[in-house]
Design brief:
Number of strands: 9
Distance between the termini: 65 Å
Strand content: 5-15%
Largest sheet: 5 strands, parallel
Radius of gyration: 24 Å
Oligomer: single chain
Order of helices and strands: HEHEHEHEHEHHEEEHEHHHHH
Number of helices: 13
Strand order of the largest sheet: 2-5-8-1-9
Helix content: 40-55%
Amino acid sequence: MQGCAVRFEGTENYVSTDDLAMAVNAAVTLERPLLVKGEPGTGKTQLAIEVARALDKPIYDWAIKSTTKAQQGLYEYDAVSRLRDSQLGDDRVHDIANYIVKGKLWECFESDVQPVLLIDEIDKADIEFPNDLLRELDQMEFYVYETQKTIRAKHRPIIIITSNNEKELPDAFLRRCFFHYIKFPDRDTMQQIVDVHFPDLKPKLLKEAMEVFFGLRELPGLKKKPSTSEMLDWLKLLLADDIPPETLREASVKKSLPPLYGALLKNEQDVHLFERLAFMARRNS
């Protein structure tokens, strides 16, 4: 269960800052889960996908919901199917293993090569969820009571856990993780990200789009600031509709809503806030 020798430095599809790459490699070296926090839309989930791609490893994606229990990541016993089969006289009922449904951790533990395990949006689950996984993530094994067998990981996976900071995580769980907060990209980093996705974007359009985008993010009182993924969606729409840079410039000068603003502002409160602030700015100018 050794950490991988290859180091992560980002990929052609994913711009990684030096401190993020350092965090990934530190977690791999320490053989500890990497807990990644940051604003929604800053590439936390995509990080795990790109780490797997860069290091040429399979990825197992466990997306957490509010109803998810830790046990589901290990396995579930399908008693209903066994009862139905027993009523139908199916011979499968004599082997309880036929009714054990493997979870993502079990599948990950069975990988013949070191895998990447993504536990996505862990803060959506119940507060006890992280603590319920402590032993399994520490020992890399768990016990199946129905078959009386212990399942052990063939290779210690690279574990990346994401959180949107919706709730605090238990201290005992945090102690076992290497932590990194993905800061929102500055203008230079954002330009690198845009260049990856839109290499042929005209510099003038990018300049005006960046002015509008970061101007929106700086609005005081905004309920939901536009994210990196929303910036990319917006640029895609601008290109599809062939919006000229002058139109964006005009919106900035007139302090009016930018074209296709629905890709950036996602609720009516923020739209109304922008309109009020823009009206005040025009009146005072």
